[in-house]
Write a structure and sequence with these properties.
By secondary structure, this protein is of the alpha+beta class. The chain is built from three helices and nine strands. It starts with a strand and ends with a strand.
């Protein structure tokens, strides 16, 4: 897994339409249910994985553009070295035109693994476990994430995501981090 960066999110409780009894809230990487702290791409402070290298960069963006971070949760992500196109695994790289220098947090708590679509090849798009309700059919934890990398990998390779959103799909580990 490669350090991909940080994101501040407004974590939502499980929406009523998601009929997955085990899910209580949504820690998905996509902003479809639990939104990012801002429409951050317009500020061009993100890294080549389209996340942030440090929590301080997020704080600076929020300060500079008067964005309230109250009520947000901080997450750190790592991404698997390959993406799955529906048939096989292929290597990918961060956007080389944008510097990437992620500082790994000293204290992080693994919450699970998300499968995310990257059809446009840059920013995270959909997390079908929550966005498409696949958590109703697949085993997830209370945060709507897979408990292990193997669960995510097996679900992809066995076609469980085939009828959700266009890929390629990337597996990312989701860690909670305390605002320092």
């Amino acid at each position: 897994m490669i350090p991909a960066g940080y994101m501040a999110k407004r974590v939502s409780e499980k929406p009523d339409w998601l009929k997955a009894a085990q899910v209580t809230d949504i820690y998905s990487i996509s902003g479809c249910v639990s939104s990012d702290f801002a429409d951050y791409i317009n500020y061009w402070k993100h890294n080549g994985f389209w996340f942030f290298d440090t929590p301080e960069v997020i704080r600076n963006v929020a300060h500079q553009y008067s964005i309230d971070l109250e009520g947000t949760s901080l997450f750190y992500y790592e991404v698997h070295e390959e993406e799955f196109d529906g048939k096989g695994w292929h290597e990918f790289r961060p956007d080389s035109s944008i510097p990437t220098n992620v500082i790994v947090p000293v204290d992080k708590r693994l919450e699970g693994f998300d499968v995310v679509t990257f059809w446009s090849k840059n920013a995270a798009e959909c997390s079908p476990l929550s966005c498409n309700g696949l958590a109703e059919e697949l085993t997830t934890n209370s945060h709507c994430l897979f408990a292990s990398f193997a669960d995510a990998e097996n679900s992809l390779e066995n076609g469980k995501f085939s009828d959700s959103e266009p890929g390629p799909y990337r597996i990312l580990s989701v860690y909670s981090v305390k605002w320092g």
